[in-house]
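Note to self: the last two entries modelled the partners one at a time, which told us nothing about the interface. This time every component goes in together.
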Amino acid sequence: MRRSLIASALTLIGVGSATNAAMATPEADPYAIVLKVLETHIIPHVTAFKTAAAKLPETIAHVCERGDKSSRTAAAKSFREAIESYAAIEFLRFGPLQQSGLREKLSFWPDPRGILPRQMRQLLTSPDAATADVAFIKKQSAALQGLPALEILLTDRNTPLAPGPESVTQCALAKSIAGAIADNAAAFDTAWTKDGGWKDKMLRPGSDNDTYKEPSEAASELVKALLVGFQLVADVQLKPRLDAKDKATGPYAASNLTQAHYTAFVTSLNQFYDTLGLELYLGDDQLWVKNWASGAWRAIRASDGLGGRVADASRSTSPTLREVFDKTTGLRKLVSRELATASHLTVGFNELDGD
Amino acid sequence: MSLSRRSLMLNSIALLATRAVSPAFAAGPEPRFVSASRNADGTFSLIMLSAEGRILRDIPLSARGHDIAIHAQSGRAVAFARRPGDFAVAFETRSDSEPIVFTAPEGRHFFGHGAFSPDGHLLYATENNIAAGVGVVGIYDVGGGYKKIGEHQSYGVGPHELILLSDGKTLAIANGGIDTSPEAGRENLNLDAMQPSLAFVDRETGALRQQHVFTRDAQRLSIRHIAADRAGQVWFGGQWEGDPGAAPGLIGCASLDRALSFAVPDASAGDDLKDYIGSVAISDDGRTLAASAPKAGRIVYVDTVTSRITACSVLRDACGLAPLAAETFVETSGFGVFRYATSGLQVLSEVDLEGIAFDNHLRRLA
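The predicted structure of the combined assembly is written out below.
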């Protein structure tokens, strides 16, 4: 509304260059944006996570059967792939990830109160743990069902997963948790891709759709997911490590995968940003937005999330965590204020992050 | 709406919003409303507004604010940082004297809400005992420079809004049930084990007078915002953390002697509120509750006697609500709209404050 008023006023007073610029700038087609993001980003990443998670039960079972170096390497590899593929979809905090508490079940993190370690210690002493199966795990708390729970067992140096009586309980739990992760990842994929699933819901807005009445609502949901992604990077992953007093560790630190998690997360977020393509709708006088965003992404992706630089970074200097934090929050503001406005996919201040 | 009238309003308001506004206190109109806001340049403020929606005073904040506790008789007010912020700003609504900034003590943060004692000498604020992950009510000595002098239990996790009931003795506390910790940002840490409740606490002794909890099917409904009607019922607006669209209700009430119950939805009033109520307010005659749903861009109105949803209006990113008279509310949005509207769905007036995003809550000053 506001934009159209301004546009009308400019036309009336005959600002020719502004009119020409407006003609050159394409109008966003919300349906096309949603279709493109679903088909080229969301669904492939959701399915990739399902595929990666599906390998966990077998590789964990092999460690428990053999306990040799090769089976451990394979289990570590499959765990890393599961973490990386989960990181790539972690910011899609709407629809399927909200259903049945799936987010908490897949990855109960952050856990500043140490709920998972405490519950795991209790579970390991439970008489039922040695005969645990997937159904048993699915009756436990969300914390005990996901990737961080499996990480505890995979990185336990006192009682490593291996054949033999000492590891019976650990192996029973690890195999069951791996099975639960695979099941939940498959359920996540199904919730997106089945007939009438969330993909269809986003592609078929209308009066009979209980979530999206207009194509622009579905497209705005994607903009919201992008903004949530920035918030997760800045406030949950980086900010706790900026404060010297704070001893918070990153996700999956025990398996040395914090950096891999960060890299997979921001790589996917950057691809999501590019696929949304909101820069296409900027006016000629907003070139600075593209330039600023480009520099911000270079810094975010050059960082390893821990204060260092990734090997294949496109810049030669290591961005400090403070710089990455500032660039991430700046990018969030830029998307919210400039890019979303230019594409008519604005997200309300309270709608996005009320309390 | 006439385009020319709206454009004129928009221009004049935008002009006012960009100049220093505090001199308005010298001879201009009295402020009637206050809200936290995000400004055009991305900074955050408390803005005090005239009855017409003009910004009369702007108090800069270092970060996003949330609600404002008001002591009407003295004109004293305190704005709180948004969760998990730890600052509060005390200011006078009838003068432009220098605001006082104070903070929650080490190990605590604010949840964004508070209330004064009837005599205005004490301020009660919902806070988090961060280490323990339990809610407390901080007690501050207003005359002593807002020094913290005590604490009550909130009898739950994640207390959000608290209000003082008309008996002057009882605090109603919305325990949202969600555990958060500053080191985890605004992440919800215990959705699996949420236990929201509405607690009634003696403000002098801290004793629990009553506590209502939901049945198991509603345990993921975080009770966040509350308002009391004249019959002593406390109305709540909740935020659903369960499966999308599966909330058993979002709006309801309880009292000291009546358990939690939900308002009865009316299909024609539009019940799709996207699982989220941002604020609630009771009309001056106590008969109507307004509840804003910013994610759905709606405001629903509830008859507090019959407990029925009677109407639903549309306002994109609607959130702030303040009662004005019987059936009339002032409603604000994250897109800068400041409007007068009735529960009968009449919009009496509307102005658009260019660049201003009104935050969750709007409060009437007089």
